[in-house]
Write a structure and sequence with these properties.
Elements (H helix, E strand, L loop, with lengths): L6 H17 L20 E2 L2 E2 H4 L2
Antiparallel strand pairs: 1-2
Length: about 55
């Protein structure tokens, strides 16, 4: 995901992603969530830098 999200948003994302797997019968202890904060300048969308089309 693009860099810049708050710690609260990241915490919620981790909780909710874990719930999806738990609902599929996978124990929470077996779930690892890794967040990659990628700057928009390092991400391309439709042939353009994301930082130029999605500020």
């Amino acid at each position: 995901m693009w860099a810049g999200r708050s710690e609260e948003v990241k915490e919620k994302l981790i909780e909710e992603m874990t719930k999806v797997f738990v609902n599929l019968g996978i124990p929470a202890e077996a779930v690892t969530v890794v967040i990659h904060d990628i700057p928009k300048t390092n991400w391309g969308v439709a042939g353009k830098q994301a930082s130029k089309i999605r500020p």
